[in-house]
Amino acid sequence: MTRRSGRSAVEPNSANGVKGAAPLRQARDPRSAVIGMVYRLHGSLRTLFAGPHARFGLVLLEALSLSVVCEAEEAPTVSEVGRILGYSRQSVQRAMNKLVEMDLVRAVDNPRHKRAPIFAATPAGISLSAQVRKKADALAEGLAEHFSDAEAEVLFREMERLLGCIKALTPQGR
């Protein structure tokens, strides 16, 4: 993964780092600016990655929940999926109900809990998840072209550090 020389999909401006975007007021504390940028990145990434799952009739939370079920070492419960994704159990339950209706996952009796089933992907769910992942990976590769391996590694470590701080401050480590 190497940076394209002389080409950038986004040209920064001095106000906020993105040419053509509305200028942002500078935060008093650079650490506060980081949090603001994380929120902006979240919105931009949601917009960018909206296409892959929408083509297959899934909303974002359904696609994310399906991905968690497909990639889990052990079949997860709704609560476990919610904790992994940072969504409420109720929101994930609605998504899982839709995935069951679409025959992408199935509820299985949970030997550890009477009322909380675990969810396993069906062959159709595994196939669909792989197709969505392939489309999303292509978008991610497009982003990756703008960072050297060293830059990506530093960025990853810092984001991982920020996530650890957030988890330490979040009730129940969500």
UniProtKB/TrEMBL annotation:
Limits of the HTH marR-type domain: 31-164
A Pfam family per the record: MarR_2
UniProt cross-references to Gene3D superfamilies, sorted A to Z: Winged helix-like DNA-binding domain superfamily/Winged helix DNA-binding domain
Protein name: MarR family winged helix-turn-helix transcriptional regulator
SUPFAM superfamilies: Winged helix' DNA-binding domain
InterPro entries recorded: HTH_MarR-typ, WH-like_DNA-bd_sf, WH_DNA-bd_sf
Sequence segments annotated as region (Disordered): 1-25
